[in-house]
Design goal:
Length: 646
C-alpha cells in the first residue's frame, strides 16, 4: 500500500554508566516472553523489549531510563492472573459488521480504555474503510486504513480487533477496556531469592501491578522484610492501590445477521416459533441461546424475543417480549440484531453472557441501571458472581437485551478514598513499603499512547533524579516532568490531595496541585506504612537508614575471624575497639556525612557507631555488639507566615 514519503527520526533513550548501589532500581513485572525471574541490567528500552517483549513493566523502565539516564535491574515474572477483556460497548455500531476483540499469543499486555471510530465508511474486505483508534480513553488517536484486511493488531499491546463481514458506517463507535496481567506471591518471593543470589545493591523495588488489598500488599512486605532478615539487604518496595477509573459499566455486545438472506417466519406455538434464513449462518454470526433479538424490516414480525435454539439457518424463539410470530415470508431486506439477555427479579439481575466481574463490578459497589422499562433503579451489590448480581430489593420481573439496557458503577472520589483506607489499614508499622494512590498521565516512550499510570511511577522516577535524602516532593524542583492530572479541557480529573483530601491521612503517597502554582502535578508527600509520627514514615529517611544499615553490615562483616587482644575479663582492649569503631565510622562518614552528589549536600546530620565495652570475646561463639546513632536531616513540611500590614 502506497504511503506519503517522509523522513523519520528515531530517538533511543540510553542510560549512562552502571548506576550501582543506590542508583539502581529493581523492577519486577509480568512479561509474555522469557519470564525466567532472572535479574538483568538494561540500559535501553530497546534491549529490554528484545529480551522480554512489551509489558507495563517495560514501559515503566522506558520512562525511568528516559528521565533519569540510569540503567535498571529488571526481573521478568510469569503471568499468573491473565489480563482480561473488560467492558465492551457495540451499541454505537449501526453498520452490519460485528466488531470483536481478542488477545494475542501472549494475552492482553496492558490496561487500555479503547475506542474504534469509523471515519470513512465501507464494506469489510474492500478498500476504503478508515478507522480512528485510541487506546487511552480518546486522549490521542491514530488513523488506520483497514484496506482489504478483516482485522487489525494493535502494536505492542497484545490486542487483535476483528471485523466480521458486513458494512461499517461513518461515526460507528466501538469501545472496550482491558486489564493488565498480574503476578502472585510466588513470583515476588522468587524475585527476592534471585536478587539475593546476585550482589547488586538497589535502592528500591518497583513491582508493576496494582495491589487490590492488604493481602497482596503483604506479599511485598514479606519479601522486603525477608530480604533484610535472611539476606542482609535493605530496600523499600513501591506499589499502588487499584484504580478508581474508568468506572465499571456493563458490556453491551451486539450480534447481527450478516449478508442479505430472505427470512421465513413460522408460527409453531408458544416457545417454539422459528425464523429461517435462505443463506448464511446464525452460528457463524455469533447468535446464542438466551440472546434477546430484535427483528426489523418485515411486515408482521418486527418483534423482540428470546432465542431458545440456534442452528445454522434457523433461530427458535421463546416467549416474545413484544409479540408472537405470524406466518410470513420469504421476506427480503430484514435485519436481526441481538445481544445478551438481562433478566431482572426482585433481588437479582442475571445476564446470559459476559461477566459482571470482568466488567469491573465488585461487592459493595453502587450500581445504577438504565434503559429498562421497570428497573431504572440504583442498588448496592451484596453478592456477585460472573453472571448474577444480587442486591437487597427493588427489582421487578423483566427481560431485556443488554444492547439497550445499561448498568454503571457509581463510586465517588470520597468513597474510593475511604474504601482504600479501610482495605489497607492493616498494613501498619511497615517501613519497607510505600503504597501510592491515584493516577497521572504521560505519553509512553514506546507506544506513544497517553496512558494513565500509577502515581508510584512518577514518584519513583523523580527520586532517582536526585540523591537518596532529597524528597521527591521538594517544590523547588518543579512539577513532575511531563506527568499530568488534567483532562483535555484543562480540568483536574485525577486524585488531588489539595482538593480531594484523605490520601495522606491514610498514609498513601499521592499527587497534588499547589494552591497558587506553579501549575502542574507534584508529589504531595512520599510515605511508608510505618507507624504514625515516626521519622521512618518518610520514604527518603528510610533510604538514608538503609544506607547506614548496609554500610555497617558490610564493614562489620570484616570483623569476622579477627583475633584482637583482650583484657583479662575477656573484653576488647580499648585500642582495638577504637580501631574497629574508626573503620565503621569512616565508612559511615563517606557514605552519609559528605556530599555524595555534588550540590545536594550530606545525606544525614550525624552517623556514629559505637561498640559495646562489655562483650566477652574469649568464649566460643563470641559476639560483638554495637549501636549506631543516625540523625537524619530535617524535612520542612509546613511554613506558617504572619503578614503585618502597617
Amino acid at each position: 500500500m502506497a504511503s506519503l514519503p517522509s523522513s523519520t527520526v528515531t530517538v533511543s533513550a540510553e542510560a549512562g554508566p552502571s548506576a550501582g548501589g543506590t542508583g539502581y532500581i529493581a523492577v519486577f513485572g509480568c512479561v509474555g516472553t522469557n519470564a525466567d525471574v532472572t535479574p538483568r541490567v538494561f540500559a535501553t528500552a530497546k534491549s529490554l523489549l528484545a529480551q522480554h517483549g512489551y509489558s507495563p513493566a517495560v514501559d515503566y523502565c522506558a520512562h525511568h531510563i528516559e528521565t533519569t539516564r540510569k540503567p535498571i535491574l529488571f526481573v521478568g515474572l510469569p503471568i499468573v492472573t491473565a489480563a482480561t477483556l473488560g467492558r465492551e460497548n457495540a451499541s454505537g455500531v449501526l453498520g452490519t459488521s460485528v466488531i470483536s476483540v481478542a488477545a494475542g499469543a501472549a494475552g492482553y499486555l496492558d490496561e487500555v480504555d479503547a475506542s474504534v471510530t469509523v471515519t470513512t465508511a465501507g464494506t469489510i474486505g474492500a478498500n476504503g474503510i478508515v478507522l480512528s483508534i485510541s487506546m487511552d480513553g480518546g486522549r490521542t488517536s491514530k488513523p488506520v486504513r483497514l484496506g482489504t484486511a478483516t482485522s487489525y493488531t494493535v502494536p505492542y499491546l497484545g490486542i487483535v480487533i476483528s471485523f466480521a463481514a458486513g458494512t461499517l458506517l461513518a461515526k460507528d463507535v466501538y469501545t472496550f477496556t482491558t486489564t493488565a496481567p498480574l503476578w502472585d506471591s510466588a513470583g515476588i518471593a522468587a524475585a527476592r531469592v534471585a536478587l539475593a543470589a546476585q550482589q547488586k545493591a538497589t535502592r528500591s523495588w518497583m513491582p508493576i501491578g496494582d495491589v487490590a488489598n492488604a493481602t497482596q500488599a503483604g506479599y511485598l512486605t514479606t519479601a522486603v522484610n525477608s530480604f533484610e532478615t535472611s539476606n542482609k539487604r535493605f530496600v523499600l518496595a513501591r506499589t499502588n492501590v487499584r484504580d478508581r477509573l474508568p468506572l465499571a459499566s456493563m458490556s453491551r455486545v451486539t450480534v447481527r445477521m450478516s449478508g442479505t438472506p430472505t427470512l421465513t417466519f413460522l408460527e409453531v406455538g408458544a416457545g417454539s416459533d422459528t425464523i429461517t434464513r435462505s443463506a448464511g449462518s446464525f452460528i457463524a454470526d455469533g447468535f446464542a441461546i438466551d440472546d434477546v433479538i430484535t427483528v426489523a424490516g418485515s411486515v408482521s414480525n418486527n418483534v423482540t424475543a428470546v432465542v431458545t435454539g440456534v442452528a445454522a439457518t434457523v433461530l427458535t424463539l421463546g416467549a416474545a417480549v413484544a409479540d408472537d410470530l405470524v406466518n410470513e415470508g420469504p421476506v427480503s431486506s430484514c435485519t436481526i440484531v441481538g445481544s445478551n439477555r438481562l433478566l431482572f427479579a426482585a433481588t437479582t439481575a442475571t445476564r446470559s453472557g459476559g461477566s459482571w466481574l470482568s466488567d469491573g463490578f465488585a461487592v459493595g459497589d453502587s450500581v445504577t441501571f438504565g434503559g429498562t422499562a421497570s428497573n431504572n433503579i440504583a442498588v448496592t451489590i451484596t453478592v456477585l458472581t460472573a453472571t448474577v448480581l444480587t442486591f437487597a430489593a427493588g427489582g421487578a420481573a423483566e427481560t431485556i437485551g443488554t444492547r439497550t439496557a445499561t448498568a454503571v458503577k457509581g463510586e465517588t472520589m470520597a468513597a474510593w478514598v475511604a474504601s482504600m483506607d479501610s482495605a489497607f489499614a492493616s498494613v501498619d508499622a511497615q517501613k519497607r513499603i510505600d503504597i501510592g494512590m491515584g493516577r497521572l498521565r504521560k505519553p509512553s516512550p514506546i507506544t506513544g499512547w497517553d496512558f494513565r499510570r500509577p502515581v508510584a511511577w512518577p514518584a519513583s522516577i523523580r527520586e532517582y533524579t536526585k540523591d537518596i535524602h532529597i524528597t521527591n516532593w521538594r517544590v523547588q524542583d518543579g512539577p513532575l516532568d511531563g506527568w499530568s492530572m488534567l483532562d483535555l479541557d484543562g480540568n483536574v480529573v485525577e486524585y488531588d490531595e489539595r482538593s480531594d483530601g484523605g490520601g495522606l491521612a491514610g498514609r498513601f503517597t499521592c499527587a497534588t496541585t499547589l494552591d497558587n502554582g506553579p501549575n502542574g502535578a507534584f508529589i504531595a508527600t512520599s510515605l511508608t506504612r510505618e507507624s504514625e509520627g515516626s521519622l521512618l514514615s518518610y520514604t527518603h529517611n528510610v533510604y538514608v537508614a538503609n544506607v547506614a544499615c548496609t554500610v555497617v553490615q558490610q564493614v562489620t562483616t570484616q570483623f569476622i575471624g579477627l583475633t584482637p587482644p583482650l583484657n583479662t575479663d575477656g573484653t576488647l582492649q580499648a585500642a582495638s575497639r577504637s580501631k574497629l569503631e574508626t573503620r565503621v565510622n569512616n565508612a559511615l562518614a563517606r557514605a552519609l556525612l559528605t556530599e555524595f552528589v555534588p550540590g545536594e549536600g550530606a545525606r544525614a546530620s550525624l552517623a556514629v557507631w559505637r561498640m559495646s565495652t562489655t562483650d566477652v570475646l574469649n568464649v566460643v561463639g563470641a559476639t560483638v555488639t554495637g549501636a549506631a546513632d543516625l540523625r537524619v536531616n530535617g524535612t520542612i513540611v509546613n511554613v506558617v507566615t504572619s503578614v503585618r500590614v502597617s
